[in-house]
Amino acid sequence: MRASDRAYRTLLDEIQSGALAPGTVLGEVEQAARIGVSRTPLREALGRLAADGLVVQQSARVTVVTDIDVHDIRALFELRRALEETAARVAAERGDAAAFAELAEEFAHSSLRGADGRDAYYALIARFDAQLDASVGNDYLTSALRTVRTHLVRVRRLARDIPERLTASVAEHRLIAEAIAARDADLAAHATHVHLHNALATILASLEGAHTEQGAA
User: Which domain holds residue 57?
Assistant: First the structure.
């Protein structure tokens, strides 16, 4: 792996996990030494993160992790709805019906017990997304979706895990997969719309609850 790729992956993971919180200053000298690369590949990595919208260069030598607020989350979901509803509709028309039928069956038997169960569920969603991308066969659409998903990792971690929401999400993904497998483009798009509406509502409610707790502390 190239040094710039390693630096990018390290910083990306830390930003998405919250280890590098919004507002964190990423000094070139300090970050290069910490990651174990020279300043040139680190600058390349920071440039890629800036293109992703995850950092912003405030001056020639000061780069900061970008913030993400309610306005950003709403804007992200506006784009996500447009892209994912289109992708679901196209996948129902072009995709491998058998592959989505298998995914629907896996969602039907998903277990959310413990950390391992949740990790397995998120891995299943990643496979669903990969199958969706392969079915669409549109590099422009899938590139836009990858950018959205990069930011979604941060958004999901800002919200607390809510068991009821995870259970509902399993059922929603199952319905989307079943609709695609049945070649029902309208249902696939509508089920995706409902899923994203519920996901956004839960995230916003969770953030509001967190802010209320902080204000009371």
Answer: 3-65
